[in-house]
Amino acid sequence: MPLRIAIVRLSALGDIVNTAVVLQIIHSYTPNAVIDWFVEEAFTPILNHHPLLHEVIPIPLKRLKKTKSFSLLKEMIHTLQSRQPYDHIIDAQGLLKSAIITAFLKGKVHGFDRKSAREGLAAWFYTSTSSIPYELSVIRRNVMVVTEALGIPYTEELISNKVPVFPIITLSLEEKKIAVVIGASWKSKCYPKEQFAILCDLLPTPCHLIWGSEAEYNDALWIQEHSTNAIVTSKMSLTQLVHFIAHCDLTIGNDTGPTHIAWAMNRPSITLFGPTNERMIYPTPINIGIKSPSKVDIFHINRNDFSIAQIDPHLIATNAKELLG
After folding, report:
1. SS3 per-residue string spanning 195-254
2. Other CB atoms closer than 10 Å to residue 165's CB: what's the count?
C-alpha cells in the first residue's frame, strides 16, 4: 500500500512557495507516496495539477471569517472528517488554525514543538513534535519538520540540489526581462515607489512591474510614468505568475510570495528586507538578500520599521548587474 501523507500549510503565498520543495524530497525517498495538501482556498491554483500531489484540498478559513457561516463551517468539518486515514499528517505551519485543521483528520499528527511553533498552543494537537529553532531559515524549518516526521535524513543538499518546484510551460521570450515585485503584505515591507523608479532606470534590462491589488497597480503606474525602463504587467493568475517569473532573467522585490517564486524555480533573485531579514530566504549564489540597517527581532517583528527605504538603489543595481552577468 502506498504511504498516505497529508501536508497542512494553509497560507500565505510565500510560505506555500517555500514549503513546496518538500514534495520532491518526499518522492525521492518514497516514490509511490500519495500526498494531499490542505491549503487556504485562495492559494489552490499554485498547487493544482502539481505532478507530485495527489489532491489539493481547499480550506475556506478566510471566507468563514468573513461570512461567519455555520453551514460553511459544517461543510468544511465534514470534508475533513470524511477523508481516508493518513499514515502521516504534518502541520508545516505551526499555527493554532492549522493545528485545529489536523484535529479533524484521521491519523497521527507531527508538527513543531511548543518552543519551535510560531504559536506554542498548536503543539497540543500533535502526536509527535520536532524541536527546530525558530531563528533558522524558514525553508530549512519547513524541510526539517517534514523530513523528521517521515524519517528522512536531513542534508543541505536536499534543498540546494532541488529542481524547479512548480511545473512550467515553455515561453518564447526573445528579450531579457527583469521582474520587479513592488507589493507586500505590510506597507513597511515595501520598497518606496520613488526608489523603484530610480532603480529601474539604473538597470540595463526592461523592468516588468508585478502587482496584485488596486493600490499596487496605481503604484506601478506611477513608477512607469517616472521611469524610462519600467513596464506595468497585466494582472496575472498565480499560475501565470509562476510561468512569468520562471522565464525572467532576474526578479527583484520585497519579502513576499512572488519574489520567493524565483528561488523556487531556480531563477536569480534579489529580496529586499526592512522589518524582516534573510531568515525568510535560502541564499544561494543567484538568490541574495539586501537588508536595511535596522536590527530585527524575529520573535517580535516591528511592523513600523520602514528602514527598507534606506537601501540605496545603486547598491541593488550593482548586485543586479552581477547576477545578469
Report:
1. HHHHHHHHCCCCEEEECCCHHHHHHHHHHHHCCCCEEECCCCCHHHHHHHHHCCCEEEEE
2. 25
pLDDT digits (tens, 9 = 90+) for 264-280: 999 999 999 999 999 99
Over residues 199-212, the pLDDT tens digits come to 999 999 999 999 99
What's this model's pTM, rounded to 2 decimal places?
Answer: 0.95
Paired residues of 35 in beta bridges = 5
- What's residue 175's pLDDT? 72
CA atoms within 13 Å, Cβ hemisphere of 32 = 3
Cβ 264 vs Cβ 276: under 8 Å? no
**Cell numbers that stand for 136 in this block:** 533558522
Query: Sign of torsion, CA 238 244 246 248?
Result: negative
Report d(CA 191, CA 309) in Å as an integer: 6
CB 300 within 8 A of CB 245: no
Backbone angles phi, psi at 269, to 5 degrees: -155, 155
Closest by CA position to 91, among listed 10, 4, 3? 10
From the number of C-beta atoms within 10 Å of its C-beta (0-12, 13-18, 19+), residue 155 rates as: exposed
In this structure, are residues 105 and 6 in contact, taking their beta carbons and an 8 Å threshold?
A: yes
Residues 140-164 have pLDDT tens digits of 999 999 999 999 999 999 999 999 9
Alpha-carbon torsion, ordered 239, 13, 259, 210, to 10 deg:
60
Residue 174 pLDDT greater than 80, yes or no: no
H/E element holding 24? helix 22-29
Question: What domains lie within the chain, and their CATH numbers?
Answer: 4-160 (3.40.50.2000), 178-324 (3.40.50.2000)
